């Protein structure tokens, strides 16, 4: 599994956003609009869209409205590139997400951690899915090792996050995947 420094390990994923978002057991979350809830209906996260600004930006916040990550779309990108930063600090980049090519029948999105030294020739995570069904699977690198799955059901998205995977990281990827599929206008 990927570590923060872009290397891999077969046993565990280190927290990418924060250790408080890693659980030893699977986690099911539902996403309705901009709100993320756990299986008992408790609000876990919300995605906020700033009213003003020059850039397409979203902020993942906790139930107390504290920023967890800021997602910022690179306006001049052909590959729908999004930069993700810790909290609201745009100097603390965690990872980059981008469409693997400009023309795709099935959406494939690649994730590159901050310390990836491959100059984007080898991704740390991959998201593969279908635009129309709003379903996707998140893998470690280009492997077949699944760390989360998402499907659409009853006007909401349902995400199953595997054990020892940072669920704030996964939720961020799900929102970006949806934004990429909808030209940056979803949520």
UniProtKB/TrEMBL annotation:
Any Pfam family the entry gives: LOR
Record family assignment: Belongs to the LOR family.
PANTHER family: PROTEIN LURP-ONE-RELATED 13, PTHR31087
Protein name in UniProt: LURP-one-like protein
The species this protein was found in: Arabidopsis arenosa (Sand rock-cress)
